[in-house]
Amino acid sequence: MTTPHLGPHPMLTLTDEVAQALRDGAPVVALESTIISHGMPYPQNVEMATEVEDIIRDAGAVPATIAVLHGRPRIGLGTDDLELLASHEDVAKVSVRDLPFVIARGAHGATTVAATMRLAALAGIRTFVTGGLGGVHRGAQQSFDESADLTELGTTDVAVVSAGVKSILDIGLTLERLETLGVPVLAYGADEFPSFFSRSSGHAAPMRADTPAEIAATMAAKWDLGIAGGVVIANPIPVEDEIPADEIGAIIEQALGDMDALGIHGKDATPYLLGRIVEITGGASLTANIALVRHNARLGAAIAQEYAALRG
Ligand code: PSU
Ligand code: MN
User: Fold this and answer.
1) b vs e for 217-230, b when ≥16 Cβ sit within 10 Å of the residue's Cβ?
2) pLDDT tens digits, residue range 68-95?
3) Which candidate in 53, 83, 166, 267 is catalytic?
């Protein structure tokens, strides 16, 4: 067994619901907030965030959306907090390197996959649901632009359910990096690694899992062996919600071209590309994005339950 968790870190503020669930060893699912503040337009973002929490509760787990509000890392949010994150203009995108500064300034921050993983782990939460992971950007050989989501997956013990990696990134290089970092990558019910809007990517999944129990057993085995770091669960978008790879591929090329023409780079790259893809598709990409997050929430709740059962 891994060392028992000693309770949430004192710098965190947990809701009573989340604190109680963690004390009881009940299933808890972490959710990120960059997807709310910088990944989707208002008001669809707050509707998505609320609905995903409801899906997780209906499936018998406790949702814990994570963000920094007034400089306090918060584990579990209320309706007003979600509304603030969705609509307030001064919510910074916070990855791990940004956490200390936003806390020191008493500011608001929407946490990326990396920062959410770190805060979830400090709270004692092991399962986390999102839409898409960050990874190695196209052209990283020149720009060095690799998401801190990758390095975090290499060190922090949290399993992350996503719909894979968008082809705004270099999917092949992202999978290579995950291998180097010792991160198991399991496609759920599929042989191919999915590319967010599409079930296909042209890359075989490193591993395949067909049940939440198998995924929970992989998490337990990794951490019981003392192998630090995350587990990636890639859940393909449902067939009926999919945007075919060639169709979305051309749109992504256009968005990348527009980004280069505007000279946008660094932490602004991903939010710009997501917004531009919504514009070019006239909202179709947003519909697909919301559908896949819902789908991931159901799987994440099931994994959290299996993992809690293993540990209980
Ligand atoms: N991919 C998406 N939607 C998102 C993100 C990525 O399809 O909202 C967000 C996540 O919060 C992810 C972050 O952790 O972008 C990665 O940003 P960066 O590449 O700057 O690390
Ligand atoms: Mn980056």
Assistant:
1) ebbbebbeeeeebb
2) 999 999 999 999 999 999 999 999 999 9
3) 166
No. of helices (H) and no. of strands (E), the chain: 13, 11
Q: Which domains are delineated in the chain?
A: 13-311 (3.40.1790.10)
Decide: 18 and 56 in contact? Cβ < 8 Å. Answer: no
Atom of ligand 1 nearest to the CA of 39: 8
Q: Nearest 10 degrees: CA dihedral of 224, 152, 272, 265?
A: -150
Cα angle: 52, vertex 246, 134; to 5 degrees: 45
Contact 107, 68 (CB under 8 A): yes
Tell me the per-residue pLDDT of 191-240, one tens digit each, with 9 for 90 and over.
999 999 999 999 999 999 999 999 999 999 999 999 999 999 999 999 99
Residue 1: its pLDDT value, please?
47
Confidence (pLDDT) at 312: 87
- Ligand 1 pocket mutation, candidates 40, 44, 85, 112, criterion most atoms within 8 A of CB: 112
pTM score: 0.97
Q: Which residues of 69-86 are buried (b: 16+ CB within 10 A; e: fewer)?
A: beeebbbbbeeebbbbbb
CA dist., res. 136 & res. 304, Å (int):
28
Whether residue 135 is predicted with pLDDT greater than 80 in this model: the reply is: yes
Closest Cα to atom 17, ligand 1: which residue?
134
The sign of the dihedral angle between the CA atoms of 234, 238, 244, 247 is: negative
pLDDT at 6: 78
Collapsing DSSP states into helix, strand and coil, what is residue 170? coil
21 close to 10: Cβ distance less than 8 angstroms: no
Strands (E), the chain: 13-14, 28-31, 62-69, 72-75, 91-94, 108-111, 127-129, 159-162, 185-188, 207-209, 231-234
Contacts of 166 (CB under 8 A, 6+ apart): 132, 195, 196, 197, 252
pLDDT at 4 over 80: no
d(CA 29, CA 192): 25
